[in-house]
Amino acid sequence: MRSNQVRLNNGITIPVIGMGTFSMENDRKTTENGVHMALKIGYRHFDTAKIYGSEPALGNALREAIIDGVVEREDIFVTSKLWGSDHNDPVSALKQSLQKLGMEYVDMYLVHWPVKLKPWVCYPVPKEEDFEKVLDMEKTWSGMEKCLEMGLCRSIGVSNFSSTKIEALLDFASVPPAVNQVEMHPMWRQKKLRDFCGDYRIHVSAYSPLGGPGNVWGSTAVVNNPIMQSIALKHRSTPAQVALSWGLSKGASVIVKSFNEDRLKENMGALDLKLDDYDLLEIEKMEEEKIMKGEFLVNSTTSPYKTIQHLWDDEI
């Protein structure tokens, strides 16, 4: 079994497999039950955000588990995110998230997107008119650093940032981002971004590491790909485990969402799978196949965030 944690550039460690808590339904009981199951299986990394609406359910489940002695607070890693309408005051935004979570601090606080939304925008898929024309990222990041100074979080980072945007951030940041959380899977491999982040010791965390099956904007193309299925058969594993193991082999952590006990166990089983060089070469062919066929999967063509991505001046 590979190590289940990786050390960040600030010295703290992050579990390499995390449970995502976003769902369109956002049913509190389903989320709480899923978190309890995940804890029993061995998950210690939980990902949420203001806009997911899952902070209260996640916090309640974790508090119950701590009270029951299932886990200590120091043993879990909680990530939340600054929504685009809160760029003017990250400190207040994080305090509100902490109140919903019922926690004194989160382990990671991320800038959710490199865009600023108008103050009233509180829905996950903004319209084009919801965007502010100018984002003062220096002011935003200063607020993020203040959150860190106040002990409201242990680490700060970014999400959905291109290498160009991170490079601009590093010009004025006193504290560099510890993490860049982006969509990444065998058919959207993010090699350029991974290489850039590696140069600056910024850890890449992958969301939708299976290609987003089950989401309205996602696709089963990754797990249904014949190459993935062939590798899974070879290792007596599953295509999902192959996809997750691929992400782990690239040095990323993976955030995978399921509230199903069998799927939660299956996903954690990726830690026991080690892909060989031939497997990795075969998976690279999937990327080539995607480009040749003109398929875009869950990128800016089909993602619910295509409006956000369309407004970027560069691509991830």
From TrEMBL:
Keywords: NADP
Annotated site, Lowers pKa of active site Tyr, chain positions: K81
Record GO biological process: indole alkaloid biosynthetic process
Catalytic residue list: Y52 (proton donor)
Pfam families linked to this entry: Aldo_ket_red (PF00248)
Gene3D superfamilies in alphabetical order: NADP-dependent oxidoreductase domain (3.20.20.100)
InterPro entries given in the database record: AKR, Aldo/ket_reductase_CS, NAD(P)_OxRdtase_dom_sf, NADP_OxRdtase_dom
Domain NADP-dependent oxidoreductase: 17-287
Residues that hold substrate according to the record: H112
GO MF entries: oxidoreductase activity
Entry's family note: Belongs to the aldo/keto reductase family.
PANTHER family: ALDO/KETO REDUCTASE
Protein's name in the database: NADPH-dependent aldo-keto reductase, chloroplastic
Organism, scientific name: Olea europaea subsp. europaea
